[in-house]
Every structure is written in structure tokens, then in C-alpha cells.
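lol forgot to send this yesterday, sorry. C-alpha cells for the thing we talked abt
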């Protein structure tokens, strides 16, 4: 994504102080942050998603505006979680991009049925980076090892998980379906789904280690949770 230029000399402490203030001081900081987030999200949508690149620029700009409003609320709620380990604007943009991706996923899967959800779960080879983010593997031996690991994972999904665990795990970790949508389709709730997927991950890690894979080899498959 193209880097957006900073519009302020505020340091992290100043951002937190201004956003936590009252009146015109907070309003000025919010206006500046809104403009920065909107520019970044517009660039992210246009440059990172082929479906957005084909759309009219004004439509994408409006979508970025919608995501910006949602992201600002999320950022303000999350201010206590900011740990000053990066620039505030870098952290805020990451929050905004996660909001945009989550919103796009919810829209993509909003009409999904339970039967379709169950039918999707046929393989653990991810179509997205939801399960694993492998580095480029030009080495044939490394590629063979990767295929062996995924074959074992496929076996584990079919042999050690219950049907509900299998559906929940594949939907959330392979297909990237938002957990709240999966919970609704499975007549559950988000907390119960988190627990179900957590238990499924534990079973699969143990299965793969029993198959002879080292913990270091297995861990990257589950690093998103």
C-alpha cells in the first residue's frame, strides 16, 4: 500500500492527549486523524483489491469513508490498548485496515447458509492467509514438506475433530468467514465459537506433533490464534 504522508508533527503522547481532550482540541485531532485514515483506506482498497480497482473511484472513496467512521470509533475505544511501540498513526492505520477487511468479509458472507458453510469445508489448504502465511518456498524439498504437513493437517481435521468443530475451524480459519456469522449459522454465540475453535486448534496441534512434526514446524499454522 502506498504510504500516506503525515499531516502533523504530533508525537504519540500528543495524539493520545489531544484525542482524550474536550472541545476544539479533540475535534481538531479527530479531523486530522479522519483525513489520514481515509486517505490510507482509499489507497489500500484501490491498490490491494482487484475488485475495488475495477470500481468507480468515487464509489471506493465513499466506501473508504464508511470504513473510516467505523474505524475511528474502534480507535477511540482502543486507545488504552496502544502501547507506544510504534507511531500512533501506524497503529491507527492497522486498526482501520482490520476494520475494513472485517467489514468486507461480513458483506461477502452475509447470505451464506449453514449448508453452504458445511459444504465449503472440504480442504485445509487455505485460499487466503487466514490459517498460514508461508514464506516463498522455491526449494522443492521445502515444498514437499509443506504438502506433507497439510496432508497430515487434513487427516487431523477429519479424524480428531467433531463435525461441529470441523465446520467451525474450517469456516473461520480456512475460508475466513467472520466468527459472528459462523456462530449465527450454527445457532451458537461468538464466545462459544471461540472456545470451540480454540479446542479444535489444540487437538490439531497435538495430532500433528504425534505425527512427528516439531512444535516449531506446527506453530505457524496456528499463529493467528
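and heres what i got for the seq, position by position
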Amino acid at each position: 500500500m502506498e504510504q500516506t504522508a503525515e499531516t502533523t508533527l504530533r508525537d504519540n503522547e500528543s495524539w493520545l492527549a489531544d484525542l482524550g481532550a474536550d472541545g476544539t482540541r479533540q475535534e481538531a485531532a479527530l479531523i486530522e486523524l479522519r483525513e489520514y485514515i481515509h486517505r490510507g483506506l482509499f489507497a489500500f482498497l484501490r491498490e490491494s483489491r482487484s475488485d475495488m480497482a475495477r470500481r468507480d473511484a468515487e464509489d471506493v472513496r465513499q466506501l473508504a469513508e464508511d470504513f473510516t467512521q467505523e474505524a475511528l470509533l474502534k480507535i477511540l475505544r482502543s486507545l488504552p490498548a496502544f502501547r507506544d511501540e510504534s507511531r500512533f498513526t501506524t497503529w491507527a492505520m492497522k486498526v482501520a485496515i482490520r476494520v475494513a477487511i472485517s467489514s468486507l468479509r461480513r458483506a461477502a458472507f452475509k447470505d451464506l447458509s449453514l449448508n453452504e458453510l458445511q459444504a465449503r469445508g472440504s480442504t485445509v489448504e487455505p485460499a487466503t492467509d487466514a490459517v498460514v502465511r508461508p514464506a516463498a518456498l522455491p526449494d522443492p524439498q521445502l515444498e514437499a514438506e509443506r504438502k506433507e504437513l497439510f496432508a497430515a493437517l487434513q487427516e487431523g481435521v477429519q479424524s480428531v475433530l467433531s463435525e461441529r468443530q470441523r465446520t467451525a475451524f474450517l469456516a473461520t480459519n480456512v475460508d475466513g468467514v467472520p466468527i459472528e456469522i459462523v456462530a449465527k449459522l450454527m445457532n451458537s454465540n461468538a464466545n462459544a465459537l471461540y472456545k470451540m475453535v480454540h479446542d479444535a486448534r489444540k487437538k490439531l496441534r497435538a495430532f500433528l506433533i504425534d505425527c512427528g512434526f516439531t512444535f516449531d514446524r506446527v506453530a505457524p499454522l496456528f499463529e493467528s490464534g
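The chain has eleven helices and no strands. anyway ping me if u want another try
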